Structure formats: structure tokens, C-alpha cells
Sequence to fold (185 residues):
Amino acid sequence: MTWLKDLLAAGLAHLWFVTLHPFEDGNGRLARAITDMALAQDERQAMRAFSLSSQILREREAYYAILERTQKGGLDVTDWLAWFLTQVESAAMAAETTIADTLAKARFWLRHQATDLNERQRKVLNRLLDAGRDGFEGGMNTRKYMGLTRTSRVTAYRELADLVEKGCLEPTGKGGRSSGYRVKW
Fold:
């Protein structure tokens, strides 16, 4: 349970530093850096795969709300520590998703390293891969392909069909004018 003690210590270090507010500017950035450093020391690693600082910035509004409640609520830091631990968990889960997506993208390109693709096709595939499994709303279609690559409808249709034939994309099941495609992970 020493890891929990270390996490709580990191949460308290952040809270007390930001509450003391020793500098005119940069206290928040320095508090996040101190927290990231404390977490790295806890893991006995020079660096971590996740950034609590990024998570705090994503939850900025809730961060300031819990800080204010804690700072005005006497000496009880229970709510702050519960919030902090939730953010550590969320940051780790976000990092896990990022790592999984990066590995999936690397596996995709490894599988297709010998596939003959033009620059436009690579650009569209990278855009789809970067968006993740569910990130490109509605998948790819001829109109979106035209917009991304600045090609004609005929060229877009032909290149999408080529990507399907080469096993890079698969149809989403809709046909006709609403034809859509997604990455074949």
C-alpha cells in the first residue's frame, strides 16, 4: 500500500503548493510539475506514460472548483484527495488508450508497408488512423475524401475503391450515395 501513500503525498504536495501560492506567476504550472515529479519518484521511473498535468488541464473547471472548496473548507482534504486520485486514474486510462491507438496504427502500417499507395491515400489513412476507431464520424466517404485531398469525385471514388481492394479500408455496409468506409484494423 506504499503506492497509495505516495499518491496521497503527491496530491497533498500539489494542494499545499498551490494553496501557499509563493510566486506572483507560474504557481499552477509549478504545482503540476511538482506533482508529476512526485508521481515519477513514486514509480521510481525517470518518466511516466501519462501526464497528470494534461488531465488537470482537461478538467480545469472542476480543478478550480475543488481547489476553492478545499481551501475554504478548513483542514479537511478528503474531497480533494478523492478528486485527485480520480484524475490520476483518468490520466492513466487516457494514456492507455493513446498507447493502444499508437500500437494499432503501427501494426496497420507494418501490415501495409509494401502496399502501393499514393500520397493522397496515405494522407487519408493517417487521418483516419489518428482519429481512432470511432473518431472519424460517419467514416470516410467520397465527399470527405474529395475535401481532404482536393481531388475530383471520380478520382476520390477510384482511390477509395483501391483502398478497399488493397485491404486498407472496408465498407461500412451502406451502399449507393451513402457509401462509407472505415479502416480495416
